[in-house]
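User: Second chain of the day. Same drill as before.
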Amino acid sequence: MSISAALVKQLRDMTGAGMMDCKAALAETGGDLEAAVDWLRKKGLSKADKKAGRTAAEGLIGIASDAKSAVVIEVNSETDFVARNDAFQELVRNVADVALGTDGSVQAVAAAAYPGSGKSVEDSIRDAVATIGENMALRRSAKLTVDKGVVATYVHSAVSDGLGKIGVLVAVETDGNADAAQAFGRQVAMHVAAINPLALTEAEVDPAAVAREKEIFSEQARQSGKSENIIEKMVEGRLRKYFEEVVLLKQAFVLNPDLTVEKALKEAEKEIGGPAKITGFVRFALGEGIERETSDFAAEVAAAVKK
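Assistant: Same format as last time:
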Protein backbone atom coordinates (compact mmCIF):
# COMPACT_ATOMS: atom_id res chain seq x y z
CA MET A 1 0.00 0.00 0.00
CA SER A 2 1.01 3.63 -0.49
CA ILE A 3 2.04 5.45 2.69
CA SER A 4 1.32 9.18 2.56
CA ALA A 5 3.85 11.75 3.68
CA ALA A 6 1.22 13.20 6.03
CA LEU A 7 0.83 9.85 7.79
CA VAL A 8 4.58 9.47 8.14
CA LYS A 9 4.79 12.98 9.60
CA GLN A 10 1.96 12.22 12.04
CA LEU A 11 3.76 9.10 13.29
CA ARG A 12 7.03 11.01 13.55
CA ASP A 13 5.32 13.75 15.61
CA MET A 14 3.82 11.09 17.90
CA THR A 15 7.03 9.16 18.49
CA GLY A 16 9.99 11.39 17.68
CA ALA A 17 11.44 8.53 15.62
CA GLY A 18 13.29 9.07 12.32
CA MET A 19 11.40 9.62 9.09
CA MET A 20 12.61 6.41 7.42
CA ASP A 21 11.86 4.37 10.54
CA CYS A 22 8.34 5.79 10.61
CA LYS A 23 7.80 4.94 6.94
CA ALA A 24 9.05 1.39 7.52
CA ALA A 25 6.82 0.98 10.59
CA LEU A 26 3.74 2.06 8.65
CA ALA A 27 4.63 -0.25 5.78
CA GLU A 28 5.06 -3.18 8.18
CA THR A 29 1.73 -2.51 9.91
CA GLY A 30 -0.40 -1.66 6.88
CA GLY A 31 -0.74 1.99 7.80
CA ASP A 32 -2.12 1.30 11.31
CA LEU A 33 -0.81 4.19 13.44
CA GLU A 34 -1.25 2.49 16.80
CA ALA A 35 0.41 -0.69 15.61
CA ALA A 36 3.19 1.37 14.03
CA VAL A 37 3.83 3.11 17.38
CA ASP A 38 4.18 -0.32 19.02
CA TRP A 39 6.43 -1.51 16.21
CA LEU A 40 8.70 1.51 16.62
CA ARG A 41 8.71 1.16 20.39
CA LYS A 42 9.81 -2.45 20.16
CA LYS A 43 12.48 -1.57 17.65
CA GLY A 44 13.54 1.44 19.70
CA LEU A 45 13.83 -0.55 22.90
CA SER A 46 15.94 -3.12 21.12
CA LYS A 47 18.27 -0.32 20.01
CA ALA A 48 18.19 1.15 23.51
CA ASP A 49 19.55 -2.11 24.90
CA LYS A 50 22.50 -1.85 22.50
CA LYS A 51 23.03 1.81 23.37
CA ALA A 52 23.16 1.01 27.09
CA GLY A 53 26.76 -0.15 26.75
CA ARG A 54 27.94 3.23 25.54
CA THR A 55 29.46 5.73 27.95
CA ALA A 56 27.07 8.49 29.04
CA ALA A 57 29.19 11.18 30.68
CA GLU A 58 27.42 14.30 29.43
CA GLY A 59 23.89 15.39 30.34
CA LEU A 60 22.53 17.69 33.03
CA ILE A 61 22.36 18.26 36.76
CA GLY A 62 18.79 19.06 37.85
CA ILE A 63 17.56 20.73 41.04
CA ALA A 64 14.09 21.06 42.55
CA SER A 65 13.11 22.56 45.91
CA ASP A 66 10.25 23.53 48.19
CA ALA A 67 10.02 25.38 51.51
CA LYS A 68 11.94 22.85 53.64
CA SER A 69 13.80 20.55 51.24
CA ALA A 70 15.64 20.33 47.95
CA VAL A 71 16.93 17.57 45.70
CA VAL A 72 19.74 17.37 43.17
CA ILE A 73 19.94 14.71 40.45
CA GLU A 74 22.29 13.79 37.61
CA VAL A 75 20.91 12.40 34.35
CA ASN A 76 23.60 11.47 31.85
CA SER A 77 23.57 11.38 28.07
CA GLU A 78 26.32 10.57 25.58
CA THR A 79 26.71 14.05 24.09
CA ASP A 80 26.38 17.66 25.13
CA PHE A 81 24.26 18.16 22.01
CA VAL A 82 21.48 16.07 23.55
CA ALA A 83 21.80 18.03 26.82
CA ARG A 84 20.71 21.09 24.84
CA ASN A 85 17.68 19.21 23.48
CA ASP A 86 14.35 20.58 24.81
CA ALA A 87 12.94 17.07 25.26
CA PHE A 88 15.94 15.98 27.33
CA GLN A 89 15.78 19.12 29.46
CA GLU A 90 12.08 18.51 30.12
CA LEU A 91 12.90 14.93 31.09
CA VAL A 92 15.55 16.02 33.63
CA ARG A 93 13.32 18.76 35.03
CA ASN A 94 10.44 16.29 35.50
CA VAL A 95 12.70 13.70 37.14
CA ALA A 96 13.96 16.35 39.59
CA ASP A 97 10.37 17.33 40.46
CA VAL A 98 9.52 13.66 41.02
CA ALA A 99 12.64 13.16 43.15
CA LEU A 100 11.52 15.94 45.50
CA GLY A 101 8.59 13.75 46.56
CA THR A 102 10.83 10.78 47.44
CA ASP A 103 13.53 10.12 50.05
CA GLY A 104 16.07 11.20 47.43
CA SER A 105 17.72 7.81 46.87
CA VAL A 106 18.34 6.74 43.27
CA GLN A 107 16.29 3.59 43.83
CA ALA A 108 13.27 5.54 45.07
CA VAL A 109 13.50 8.10 42.26
CA ALA A 110 13.87 5.42 39.56
CA ALA A 111 10.82 3.55 40.87
CA ALA A 112 8.63 6.66 41.28
CA ALA A 113 5.84 7.44 38.81
CA TYR A 114 6.87 9.72 35.95
CA PRO A 115 4.22 12.45 35.41
CA GLY A 116 1.57 11.78 32.77
CA SER A 117 3.01 8.48 31.57
CA GLY A 118 1.67 5.76 33.84
CA LYS A 119 5.26 4.48 33.95
CA SER A 120 8.18 4.67 36.32
CA VAL A 121 11.00 7.17 35.93
CA GLU A 122 13.32 4.32 34.95
CA ASP A 123 10.99 3.12 32.17
CA SER A 124 10.39 6.68 30.97
CA ILE A 125 14.13 7.29 30.64
CA ARG A 126 14.38 4.00 28.76
CA ASP A 127 11.66 5.17 26.37
CA ALA A 128 13.54 8.45 25.89
CA VAL A 129 16.63 6.49 24.83
CA ALA A 130 14.61 5.10 21.93
CA THR A 131 13.13 8.49 21.01
CA ILE A 132 16.20 10.70 21.41
CA GLY A 133 18.66 8.10 20.18
CA GLU A 134 21.36 8.10 22.86
CA ASN A 135 22.15 6.10 25.96
CA MET A 136 20.81 7.90 29.04
CA ALA A 137 20.78 7.07 32.72
CA LEU A 138 19.75 8.45 36.09
CA ARG A 139 23.15 8.26 37.74
CA ARG A 140 22.62 9.70 41.22
CA SER A 141 20.32 11.70 43.43
CA ALA A 142 20.49 13.36 46.87
CA LYS A 143 18.08 15.24 49.09
CA LEU A 144 18.48 17.62 52.04
CA THR A 145 15.65 18.53 54.43
CA VAL A 146 15.44 20.88 57.43
CA ASP A 147 12.91 20.96 60.27
CA LYS A 148 13.30 24.73 60.51
CA GLY A 149 15.18 27.00 58.16
CA VAL A 150 15.88 26.57 54.45
CA VAL A 151 17.71 24.47 51.88
CA ALA A 152 19.36 26.91 49.50
CA THR A 153 20.29 25.90 45.96
CA TYR A 154 22.66 27.03 43.22
CA VAL A 155 23.14 25.85 39.63
CA HIS A 156 26.37 26.72 37.82
CA SER A 157 26.60 26.92 34.01
CA ALA A 158 22.81 26.90 33.88
CA VAL A 159 21.17 26.09 30.55
CA SER A 160 17.68 26.62 31.96
CA ASP A 161 16.02 27.22 35.32
CA GLY A 162 17.24 24.49 37.70
CA LEU A 163 19.38 22.76 35.07
CA GLY A 164 23.14 23.03 34.54
CA LYS A 165 26.61 21.49 34.90
CA ILE A 166 27.08 21.83 38.68
CA GLY A 167 24.32 21.71 41.29
CA VAL A 168 24.67 22.51 44.99
CA LEU A 169 22.36 22.21 48.00
CA VAL A 170 23.10 23.86 51.37
CA ALA A 171 20.92 23.26 54.45
CA VAL A 172 20.69 26.14 56.93
CA GLU A 173 18.86 25.44 60.22
CA THR A 174 17.43 28.55 61.89
CA ASP A 175 14.35 30.08 63.50
CA GLY A 176 15.26 33.42 61.94
CA ASN A 177 14.22 35.16 58.74
CA ALA A 178 13.88 32.59 55.97
CA ASP A 179 14.65 35.04 53.14
CA ALA A 180 17.89 36.17 54.79
CA ALA A 181 18.85 32.55 55.48
CA GLN A 182 18.09 31.68 51.86
CA ALA A 183 20.25 34.55 50.59
CA PHE A 184 23.22 33.53 52.72
CA GLY A 185 22.72 29.86 51.95
CA ARG A 186 22.87 30.61 48.23
CA GLN A 187 26.16 32.45 48.73
CA VAL A 188 27.55 29.40 50.53
CA ALA A 189 26.25 27.19 47.71
CA MET A 190 28.15 29.35 45.21
CA HIS A 191 31.27 28.94 47.39
CA VAL A 192 30.79 25.15 47.41
CA ALA A 193 30.42 25.12 43.62
CA ALA A 194 33.68 27.04 43.23
CA ILE A 195 35.87 25.49 45.96
CA ASN A 196 34.49 21.93 46.24
CA PRO A 197 35.07 21.17 49.94
CA LEU A 198 35.37 17.54 50.99
CA ALA A 199 33.33 17.79 54.20
CA LEU A 200 31.32 20.16 56.38
CA THR A 201 33.42 19.68 59.55
CA GLU A 202 36.81 18.19 60.48
CA ALA A 203 35.06 15.18 62.03
CA GLU A 204 33.39 14.36 58.70
CA VAL A 205 36.60 14.20 56.66
CA ASP A 206 37.33 10.62 55.59
CA PRO A 207 39.69 9.16 58.24
CA ALA A 208 41.62 7.33 55.51
CA ALA A 209 42.29 10.63 53.74
CA VAL A 210 43.48 12.22 57.00
CA ALA A 211 45.76 9.25 57.75
CA ARG A 212 47.23 9.44 54.25
CA GLU A 213 47.94 13.17 54.55
CA LYS A 214 49.44 12.69 58.03
CA GLU A 215 51.77 9.99 56.74
CA ILE A 216 52.95 12.22 53.89
CA PHE A 217 53.45 15.20 56.20
CA SER A 218 55.35 13.06 58.69
CA GLU A 219 57.72 11.72 56.04
CA GLN A 220 58.34 15.22 54.68
CA ALA A 221 59.03 16.55 58.19
CA ARG A 222 61.48 13.74 59.00
CA GLN A 223 63.54 14.65 55.96
CA SER A 224 64.24 17.97 57.69
CA GLY A 225 66.26 16.12 60.35
CA LYS A 226 64.32 17.74 63.20
CA SER A 227 63.62 15.98 66.52
CA GLU A 228 60.42 13.94 66.92
CA ASN A 229 58.66 16.50 69.13
CA ILE A 230 59.36 19.23 66.57
CA ILE A 231 58.19 16.90 63.78
CA GLU A 232 54.95 16.28 65.68
CA LYS A 233 54.28 20.01 65.90
CA MET A 234 55.11 20.43 62.21
CA VAL A 235 52.66 17.69 61.29
CA GLU A 236 49.95 19.24 63.49
CA GLY A 237 50.45 22.55 61.69
CA ARG A 238 50.27 20.91 58.26
CA LEU A 239 47.10 19.03 59.22
CA ARG A 240 45.53 22.25 60.45
CA LYS A 241 46.32 23.81 57.08
CA TYR A 242 44.90 20.76 55.31
CA PHE A 243 41.58 21.08 57.18
CA GLU A 244 41.43 24.77 56.28
CA GLU A 245 41.66 23.74 52.63
CA VAL A 246 39.09 20.90 52.57
CA VAL A 247 36.56 21.60 55.38
CA LEU A 248 33.74 23.94 54.37
CA LEU A 249 33.41 25.77 57.70
CA LYS A 250 37.20 26.30 57.89
CA GLN A 251 37.66 27.55 54.32
CA ALA A 252 38.17 31.20 53.44
CA PHE A 253 34.76 32.42 52.24
CA VAL A 254 34.98 33.01 48.50
CA LEU A 255 32.83 36.17 48.71
CA ASN A 256 34.97 37.60 51.55
CA PRO A 257 38.33 35.82 51.94
CA ASP A 258 39.03 37.75 55.17
CA LEU A 259 36.42 35.53 56.84
CA THR A 260 36.08 31.77 57.08
CA VAL A 261 32.68 30.34 56.12
CA GLU A 262 32.09 29.73 59.82
CA LYS A 263 32.75 33.39 60.68
CA ALA A 264 30.72 34.57 57.68
CA LEU A 265 27.80 32.57 59.08
CA LYS A 266 28.14 34.41 62.40
CA GLU A 267 28.08 37.71 60.53
CA ALA A 268 25.00 36.58 58.58
CA GLU A 269 23.13 35.85 61.81
CA LYS A 270 22.69 39.62 62.21
CA GLU A 271 20.59 39.70 59.03
CA ILE A 272 18.91 36.39 59.77
CA GLY A 273 17.90 37.64 63.19
CA GLY A 274 18.95 34.64 65.24
CA PRO A 275 21.34 31.68 65.52
CA ALA A 276 21.93 29.72 62.31
CA LYS A 277 23.76 26.50 61.54
CA ILE A 278 24.85 24.90 58.27
CA THR A 279 23.82 21.27 58.73
CA GLY A 280 24.78 19.80 55.39
CA PHE A 281 25.67 20.33 51.76
CA VAL A 282 25.67 18.35 48.51
CA ARG A 283 27.63 19.14 45.35
CA PHE A 284 27.14 17.30 42.06
CA ALA A 285 29.38 18.13 39.09
CA LEU A 286 28.35 16.60 35.79
CA GLY A 287 30.28 13.47 34.86
CA GLU A 288 32.70 13.53 37.80
CA GLY A 289 34.16 10.10 38.42
CA ILE A 290 32.99 8.67 35.09
CA GLU A 291 35.73 7.07 33.03
CA ARG A 292 35.17 8.39 29.54
CA GLU A 293 35.83 6.24 26.52
CA THR A 294 38.58 7.22 24.13
CA SER A 295 38.41 6.18 20.51
CA ASP A 296 40.83 5.85 17.62
CA PHE A 297 39.14 7.95 14.95
CA ALA A 298 41.37 6.62 12.15
CA ALA A 299 40.55 3.05 13.14
CA GLU A 300 36.84 3.84 13.17
CA VAL A 301 37.03 5.26 9.64
CA ALA A 302 38.99 2.24 8.41
CA ALA A 303 36.46 -0.11 9.94
CA ALA A 304 33.59 1.79 8.33
CA VAL A 305 35.23 1.59 4.89
CA LYS A 306 35.58 -2.20 5.18
CA LYS A 307 31.86 -2.66 5.86
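Confidence is low (pLDDT under 50) at residues 45-52.

User: Great, on to the next one.
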